[in-house]
Design brief:
The chain has 2 helices and 3 strands; from the N terminus they run H-E-E-E-H. It is α+β, with helices and mostly antiparallel strands. A hairpin with a 2-residue loop joins strand 1 and strand 2.
């Protein structure tokens, strides 16, 4: 689990709008971020689903689809 948290934390560095990650239990995480359009604070909760897709995997997929990435030099 610690390894998964470290991987997700490194991924958060690529998304400047993220403001925090809350591990609520072993099967759920909540991402705190600033909405890039409205610039308002938001949060999105992810839970391991009935098909076995882990919360962390859903979180990373959602960030890739929904948040702008930091521009790399």
């Amino acid at each position: 689990m610690l390894e998964a948290i470290e991987t997700i934390s490194k991924g958060l560095d690529l998304y400047p709008d993220t403001t925090g990650l809350e591990i609520t239990d072993i099967n759920a995480v909540t991402l705190h971020f600033t909405d890039p359009v409205s610039e308002k604070p938001c949060s999105q909760r992810f839970e391991t689903n009935e098909h076995g897709v882990l919360a962390g995997v859903q979180l990373i997929n959602w960030m890739e689809e929904s948040l702008p990435m930091k521009k790399l030099n």
